[in-house]
């Protein structure tokens, strides 16, 4: 019998091999109960300032369900980036690593069940001196709307505004705690946008409406060598880039130190402004957000000093 | 060119076809209860209710029902799709749910015609495969189709995708039979193509495949006949030109007046269809250019690999030198298959429907797989020609190539759109590659127990991608508590569903802001991959 003919047996073998691979694939990812079982170990490793993240990233909802928002709060999930974290705990479910932690040293690794838990350290952590986002309330922040001068009016801070959500095709969530500048929709407050990879980014909504700018004044800000920030609009809503740009002018102690012009199609975009000459001082910082385009400038930004 | 090599089907063949189709319907009914109602099903339920009311009116006040304004009132719902399936949904609801009370759930009664048509597709695949390649090969072809997880999923639904798959197959089969001569199959082709036109717009391209087949197999002969002033075209073409439009027209009251304008609108809707979002290899596409590899990669990633292996063997065997004399039917299969994939050769064709939009190709793919099976079975039998167990080799091979698809298909329920084959690493591999995990909001069905247990009395549930009509049918069927209200407003909700698609994440983030936390109260997973999750206001 020519051995080449035996090759036809590869067909049934392939059928059975596919069955075997199917069984392996169906079982290889940890189940919800396994995620729940590893929570205690994760909680032991994670310090309050640590970032906890999982790999592969698609397992994140299971991790949030199993670990709870005490270990995985929205403030961490919707981080601007990882540069401000000194340490992270990585939960590896399928031999994966988090690409955001590329270059971070592995200080500790242990196997727990089907997981590997790693403690990783940022080789160049940047210390955040003041987060404008986390201090977006009185007495640190006051907000005005309208052009400076007679038409400028104060926005009223409330912790009890009506939450409004736009659904898939509507606006981002309008938070309960916000500065109202005229009506429910003209405001400044913390929300979460979707970036160009549809990931969450926590930010300060500061929409100039109908040609009116908004001005955010933070007092007694501990300054560092730079103002480090990101800006964007909901990428899903504005990814076509059909609108005009939005500009943020930044003043420190009454002096303009620079500006950032944002174009919608960039998505969540990084900016930095040099504050070297103010380093170590406390100063008032003002963000003046404006646009020549009067419509749908649903601008949102993150900023800190470092 | 008469297909003289084909077997004549006998009573046993019809019995096998009947058993296959009845078993398939039984399996679909047995697995339907955990499957939530897909987004489009909700719209078709609504349309079917409206059409059912018109049929009632037609029964009680015939003349009034035929007035244009009355027709418009009842048939304007979902007029972007023709009416055959929605009319069948309406009749099934009227007679099998309201009348004979055959089904406990309205939704199942709406879904039943789709199941029956899917089963008919399995039966015809068997018949054609058995006729061309032999009985066991026919069984393998039919089961290879039935046991594609995505086909199995869509076979449950009150939608048009499996019905159009079946109707396109049946019409093509009738056309192929008409080529053997006789007027009955030609007339049948005309009627069936009219019904196909009335099922879904995939039907528009079939004549291209049939004409191409005619030119390639009979073109030269036709030219000679025409020169001799003799009729040179298949009678089926004449039937398709004369009968099909009448059937199409008769079956869709919406086009009974303002016909030309409404047909224009119908064509314009589908040729200028909106681009919905679809994730593919980690990127969300929402505008052209769409990835040209989409249809091919998704076929590889969702059709069991062994079926594709048999298809490849069958394709080569069908067009190898020794087989050319019989190539008329395989050529027709190949042309139909290519025709079904043809729209995705353009980077302007939307890809939002996942695999369902080219599912019409799969019966032809499986018919080739049957040919591949027959060829391999013959070769393996030849390895042991004198052994007593040699006759068992083909059934053993059939078992070996079907057991995997069977296990995958049964395992995939009720997560049909989340299923991926081992070629891409199953559901976890698909998630890691960034392939779409779900769409259409049907996985609410997987969370119905949690919702019923945890929603407060008279609570509001944000339904996300589930159509409110689908939610209402879940409620009417008793699958969701009667006191719960579906809402599209997160801010007013007590529970919020999230069906995962990357571009929809923003809805989840709105929930985080409103609910004040980011931890789901429940997660629905398929093979460890999160597909749908629920947030609870604390």
Q: If you compute it from the alpha carbons, what radius of gyration of chain B comes out, rounded to the nearest whole angstrom?
A: 24 Å
CATH fold title of the largest domain in chain A: Jelly Rolls
CATH architecture of the largest domain in chain A: Sandwich
Shape verdict of chain B = globular
How many helical stretches of chain A? 7
Please give the alpha-carbon distance between the first and last residues of chain A: 78 Å
Please give the share of residues in helix of chain A.
10-25%
- What is the succession of H and E elements of chain A? HHHHEHHEEEEEEEEEEEEHEEEEE
A few lines on this structure:
The complex is a heterodimer of chains A (306) and B (538). By secondary structure, chain A is α+β, with helices and mostly antiparallel strands.
How would you describe what is shown here?
With 306 residues, chain A is an alpha+beta fold. Chain A has helices at 3-6, 10-28, 32-37, 39-45, 60-67, 74-77, 235-238; strands at 51-55, 87-92, 105-112, 115-121, 130-131, 141-145, 153-154, 156-158, 178-180, 187-194, 200-206, 214-222, 226-232, 246-252, 255-262, 269-274, 282-290, 300-305. In chain A, strands 5, 8, 9, 10, 11, 13, 16 and 18 form an 8-stranded antiparallel β-sheet that branches. In chain A, strands 7-6-12-17-14-15 form a 6-stranded antiparallel β-sheet, with no helix packed on it. Chain B has 538 residues and is mainly alpha-helical. Chain B folds into 2 domains: 11-367, no CATH class; 442-536, no CATH class. In chain B, 59% of the residues lie in helices and 6% in strands. In chain B, the strands form 2 sheets. Chain B has a 5-stranded mixed β-sheet, with helices on both faces. A two-stranded antiparallel sheet of chain B has the order 1-2. In chain B, β1 (278-280) and β2 (283-285) form a beta hairpin. In chain B, α2 packs across α5 (84-99), α8 (149-155) crosses α18 (393-412) and α15 packs across α17. The N and C termini of chain B lie far apart (73 Å). The model of chain B has no long low-confidence stretch (mean pLDDT 96). Chains A and B meet through α2, α5 and β10 of A and α15, α17, α18, α19 and α22 of B.
